[in-house]
Write a structure and sequence with these properties.
Helix content is 16%, strand content 35%. By secondary structure, the chain is α+β, with helices and mostly antiparallel strands. The N terminus is likely disordered.
């Protein structure tokens, strides 16, 4: 009994699906016909001339702006610089007992290097088409004042934040 009920429902559904599949699709968009309710001009007997100018291409999207790196909750900014291009002596980091976080972002083809004098060099490769984020933790213990420099070619844009 259950088979007959399923079979009897399946046949009309199949016929409905076939009838729907066999109907021809409209040649025009009905929504377009409603929008263009005004009659159009009769077709002209002259041949259509292709345009001689190419349409203006859309400009590429603007790249994201390079900004200072953010900072973690509970940290204090000790030093910051940028965004800028080329090399720079950023400043001095006073001595302290907490670890330092060096947060750096760069964009542009070339090598950049963060130098904490005396004795710490951090080289990075920056990419032309994307912002490269870098974060280093330095546990230096009690040290003297550190001078921070960034060496980079003029093709590299960068931003730096040092937190404690």
């Amino acid at each position: 009994m259950m088979i007959r009920q399923v079979a009897s429902l399946a046949i009309p559904c199949c016929l409905l699906a076939l009838a729907t599949a066999c109907t021809a699709a409209p040649t025009t968009d009905p929504a377009a016909e409603r929008r263009d309710a005004t009659p159009s001009a009769p077709p002209s007997k002259t041949a259509a001339v292709p345009p001689t100018e190419t349409p203006a291409s859309t400009p590429p999207p603007e790249p994201a702006s390079l900004r200072l790196p953010g900072m973690e909750a509970g940290t204090i900014t000790v030093l910051k610089a940028g965004p800028r291009k080329g090399s720079m002596v950023v400043g001095d980091v006073p001595p302290g007992k907490d670890e330092l976080w060096v947060l750096f972002r760069c964009r542009g083809e070339g090598k950049a290097e963060i130098i904490l004098e005396p004795g710490i060099d951090m080289p990075f490769t920056c990419l032309d088409d994307m912002i490269s984020p870098i974060m280093n933790r330095l546990d230096l213990g009690r040290r003297k004042t550190l001078t921070v420099r960034v060496q980079a070619p003029d093709s590299v844009e960068w931003a730096l934040r040092v937190t404690r």
